[in-house]
């Protein structure tokens, strides 16, 4: 769980954008989630916020008055496929407030044909939901909401290739991850033939997408596991800031940034891959990491900062400066010892300590109640992205496994590795070149 990287920086063509609500086309009884909400442009131009209570909006609609506009939070939209970007949304998209991770196994008897049909359905539904449109036979859970930066990201697990008769086209990057000493993995909450990541800035919008896609899997795939996560809501701080995790630490300072000259090479699969269908795609490693918060919170702030190697209030390295100041790994104190301890998490996970290896971390926090001993069942739904897991996640995690001061406060309880193909063109579906090639 590296604190070294920041998922907040985003290229302009993948950032959520505010769009006017589409005009009704008058062709179908199908409802748009935004049909009752008027134009968004007025909200963006005038800074309008729907305030107080939903009752005001409900009364206006009932009386036939001019509909209120969406707030900026609700109106932001992320394209399923953006011009100039081959990757799926949800990789470089800024962190959303609410998220779901879910894995499915193909149903008994389902094979390549059924998998293709399912991914076609899912891809089309994701396009509709991310644009703020409501599918037919909908539950109406998100009827009065805008897209709220919704993203839906699809991945393929190792078993998918066996079930579809495509083992020969399975990338070597999907070879099983090695075992680590701190693993306590539950196989029932790990792996899976198909994986979906859902994120949105509204919890109902995120749940709506989850429920819709789960229903569409009926007959073709069965739920294997599902996890719920959250982050700080955009606008909750006076200015945009790097997120904090449940340990209270600034988490993600030195993430690779799209402006870095080697960003694409590190995060996305290049043209040199033997698997052409993965060009422009990425690999996701998913880990459910429980934090031993009772133990952590008994440590003083000074102890916590030495474990991490950064100040808790600002995220600055212990060698001084601001959050973005480079760490001085060779700095020593009056006692001759390193200012940033040799086993500090930030030191061990730093790219310069791992032959330049880096991964794009994009996690969610989770809290699933309390354990029998009263301790919180809480921590991080760790999701990281890289062009090659062996050269990124595995290399860094092996280093952490050998002496990270943070490891005693963590338990890795579930794990998954998924190939995430590039975004399909309009009318196509995710992994179509693989399944039809």
UniProtKB/TrEMBL annotation:
Compositionally biased intervals (Low complexity): 1-29
What protein am I looking at? Deferrochelatase
Where does it reside?
A: Cell envelope
Disordered: annotated segments: 1-31, 304-331
Q: Does the keyword Lyase apply?
A: yes
The note on the cofactor says: Binds 1 heme b (iron(II)-protoporphyrin IX) group non-covalently per subunit.
What is the purpose of this protein?
A: Involved in the recovery of exogenous heme iron. Extracts iron from heme while preserving the protoporphyrin ring intact.
Q: Which family does it belong to?
A: Belongs to the DyP-type peroxidase family.
Q: What is its EC number?
A: 1.11.1.-
